[in-house]
Amino acid sequence: MNALESLPTWMRKRSTLVLLVVGVWFVLGTILAGVHTLELSTATNTPATDWLREFAASIRGSRAESPIFVYFFNPLRGGIEGFIEIIRAVIAVPASGNVIPIIGWFGVVALVGYIVYASSNWRTSLLSMALLTACGMLGVWAYTMDTLAMTVGAVLLSLAIALPIGIWAGLSDRVMAFIRPILDLAQILPTLVYLAPLALVFLIGIAAATIATMIYSIPICVRITAHAIRSLKAGPIEAAESMGSTRGQMLRKVQLPMARRTIILGINQTTLAALSFVVIAALIGAPGLGKPVIEALTIRNVGDGVVAGLAVVFLAVMLDRATTAAVQHSAELPPEGPALIRRRIGLIAGGVLTLVAIYLSRFQLWAAVFPENLVIGEYIANAADAVTEWITSTFYFLTIGLNENFTIHVLNRVESLLANTPWYITIIAISLLAAIIGGRFVAILSAVLLGAIVLIGLWNDAMVTLTQVLIATGIVMLIGVVVGVLAGRSARIERALKPILDAGQTLPAFVYLVPVLALFGPSRFAAIVCGVFYATPVVVRVVADGVRGVPSDMVEAAVSSGSSTTQVVTKVQLPASKRSLLLGANQGMIFVLAVVVIGGFVGAGGLGYLVIVGQSKPELQGKGLAAGLAIVLLGVVMDRIAQAGARRNEKKPA
Amino acid sequence: MTMTSPAPAEVSTDAAISVRGLWKIFGEKAHEIIDSPDARLPRPELLEKTGCVAAVRDASFDVANGEVFVVMGLSGSGKSTLVRCLTRLIEPTAGEVFFDGEDILTASKARLRELRRTKFSMVFQHFGLLPHRRVIDNIAYSLEVNGVKKETRHARAMEVIELVGLDGYANHFPEQLSGGMQQRVGLARALAVNPEVMFLDEPFSALDPLIRRDMQNEVKRLHQDLNKTMVFITHDLSEAMKLGDRIAIMRDGDIVQMATPADLVMHPADDYVADFTNDIPKSHVLTVGYIARPAGDGEDISGQPIDADIIIRDAIPRIVNATGPVPVTRAGESIGVIGTDDILHLVAEDASEGSAT
Amino acid sequence: MRNHLRGRLAVLPVLAAASLVLAACGGDVNEAATETTEEAVAEETVAEEAPEEEAAEEAPEAEAAVVADCGDWGVAMHAWVGYTASAQVLSDVARDALGCNIEQIQLEEAGVTYDAMEAGSVDVIIEDWGGGRWQEWVDRGAVQEAGYNGNVGLIGMYVPQWMCDENPDISDGTKLNDYAELFVTPESGGKGAWYEGPPGYTTIGEKIINAYDLDFQVINTGSEAALIEMFTQAAENQEPGLGYFYEPQNFLAQVELCRVNFPENDWSDTADASGLTDYPETPLVKLATSELLDSGSPFATLVSNFEWTNGDQNSVAAAIEGGASPEEAAAEWISANTDTVNMWLEGTGASM
Hints:
By secondary structure, chain A is an all-alpha fold. Chain A is 81% helix and 0% strand.
């Protein structure tokens, strides 16, 4: 890049170079449109996908006989399934011939309430019980219990693995260095991509779903736990060392107790992640609320889908509040004197009440099976149906018009740039952009990984998908930055937005897929809209955090020197929170990528569709697996470019 | 850990701690630099050339039993690093640290732990209390890791709590206490194991000036009652003067001067030290013996003598109220007299050097 | 803090132990529940069959006269409403008449379900369109064909009726190129939009397009829902639309569609299809696990005997689409068609 230094400054600016590259790309693309686009019809296999198909078939064949299955995978599957089934037997699934599981609804509500009370306070306990009862009122109690059982089971298993690893990584730099790339990869991996391979090895069912959930949750817990240990204040640790503690004593008596609060926070995050995934895992046989949601999608039953989705949100809010309250509680000083006595009385009384409730739930029908006359789920379903009907019929022309215009003027243009240009030109263009944004190394990496996609044979589909991801990410950033800045500057707006953001992050994407489908028809645009819904809450949160983190004296200085609001935002707050903006873009991109596969359900085509069709048609399973791999490669390319760009930004002088 | 400084001085058997040729260099090439001439480069040049920082250079000194040995210097002088090297919280690059004839730099991890549990203890600038433990459990921690039973260690903790004036706070949590109280806990914790040597790293720098004064008095009192050997780090020369039996002044990793407070004030080794000591009023540091002069003709030396080792400031009321010069004795023998004029001369000297009185 | 923790923790194990102790005893609520449901069933049966008193008397008898022990079985549920209709009727008959413990498991069709059958979590597919795509699993002994279910499936490409009314020869598939421009949408890149069937369904759209060099672009809508949506809009708003659809599907009774025909079919496995000929009339197949078929359970007999017409399926499907729950729709059909049901139950000793 030394040659560049001889050019005039304005030519060296990155934005100029980017425009230059895109311009040339566009021209070449228009001239050479349709040439060497590597388009492939869905039903055709390439050598790579053929190989994968045979590989998949051979795995299916060897599931009964091959030693690695007989001695490892199959027993693992059996063990995990057995573990979850035990939990389900207690709260969710009746044994043969019975009407209720071991504890009926009343008992479960009381038990949950007691556990929450014991780990935090009575207010959170009441809230939890109310939310759980609300799930019953929605008419999906059995499903809710299944989801709860799956979540609890998956979380317990995840913690058993993640906590020790996280602690180890917190203590040892070498372990951390080893694990970090795995954690990074796990974060980029779109969830639906590893469902198919897992189902291949572990068969559709509870075991595969649980393992998939664990793969999703463990990295989160490991990261937070390691961070908890590493970010401890140095003072007390130094003191403990100076007093002659062994490493074991240090860990047990000092580090873990001090890290406790953050570790519990990690459990909070892990639980929410597991819950959201358990719903998706219904695709590979997980019992629970995911089932009616997916059913709703395929039978276009908006109402039932919304009801189940609501139950997921309630459950998520309950778990979130309960675990967060536990975090607060763990950091408080224990009660003394009269407060301690009150607490003791509360615990004993609560325990007795809970036992009574459990007893009742076994012997009284009204306490065992959720009473029919309290169920209002049907009304909500009908209302949701009606609302969707109304919106669709009233705004149909508006939405279809929007779809068409956007598709013609934006989507198709970008797609022809990426997919309709000769593949070698596109790869070179992307690599050049990567070089400009992130440097030489990232450019080479991009070229290599994109080349791999060509070799696999899924180039055209990958470009179709990439188009949707880039456009969706762009829209997400636009909305996310604007709303995020607003929320960052005003605590009131943030409070108002909080429930929407919470719901947005926990609502399974499937739920709003159905109304989106009705509004926009099966199209790539519908998939983009879903991606925007799914990813925007995260970006808003990250940007708001960043803006809020700008030191207030910086802002005050700007204001007192006479800057207008716009100037303060664009010249002070945004630049100062640049790091958060880039992090937000990165996160937004990853979330959008996760929705890409779901887009295959609503006509987005591309790699997402291939993943879905690979699951159903054995002759295309190789393509499905290959498509999953291609999605991962795309994700890595985009992530690396974004991160390298962020790093470079930090090094550049202001 | 090879010795690289010039021929070792004899290790004094009277000393609690003997340090010989202690070096600490931070950086990857630390060990290469030790024997090379680069080691003598000033810090910025060393950093530029090798990327390493010499925090402690060739420190050698003895700490006598029962002494309060103060290491004083500005930030970056290496004093905190030095004290941490003495207990191997930071591993020195070279040198020897003898404690009771044993070079602890070569001790095994287990032996080091034993020493830390029973012979040494440390008080930290930011207290270093374990936030999740009550005061009593914080104090008893060292005993706990040493396997002492709960009853025994709690009993000992209560003793020490009384000693430092924390009665009634045994069941509090650190966050419920003020800074001064927290440092008392720190002191109590250090005393709980009945150590032979206490290391105090700027223990009062984080406290308010008034509390600081109280705590300094507290330490003086404890030292008088218990006669513990103390290595005390500070950046405040007046604190050093007040507490120290001997003071070592550090600058850029070197020990620039090591002397009693009086010596320091009277004979600063260079301008750097003089800069510090100029601010100290001599009358607060020097003893009567320093300015006692032979009796002149006609002076009445029959009055009640005053001990030569009393600090002048403390002797002023007596001298001012006396009708004439006061005889000065040391161990019964007369060494001279002291009068108000002599004190005024001293004050004038201080004033001309720009000190506040 | 430690004491506090200990106090708290101590209560939980006690609670857990107590819960487990309680778990051992009690089951009255099951009886209470069974009583309630028995009452409900009896009420229903009495109300519906009041005129037929013999039938009303038979109902409690049927409860008592469970023949061989039926067992626990899994019925695969697939995403299209016709399937739901068939599977619900089958499951309900099995439960009510044979006392079977049936679990209905929602799954993607084809490979996913065949795997589940091999794993043992699913035992019956009541309607498969696949033309032999299950061969691999049959070879491994996991799956067996259990006969035809009486429904005949016919897949095809359809357009809204108004298009056939205006241009009669649009129903000749070989002439589609003349009308390709009508079907252009922003999604189809300048060509006509050819809305293809959902992922697991038998589809040869691309082959047909290639064989006849049609100026169309396949659009993968991803679900039956999307296709229905498309056709509904096209019919309501008099817009063009060419899409994959099939009989039996009661949607065809609600919205008039016109089939686009290609030369007569000459294949049954999609791998053999050249693209020049139309979809086959597929007698729909029942698939079951060897475990079920060899078990001697009355459920196996029921599955083997299960058979009904497209009209039957459509009527139940219509009820479901109209807002009834699958259980309600099935119950309605069952009580109106006891003769058919009893034919299925021949050989099991039970009847409805």
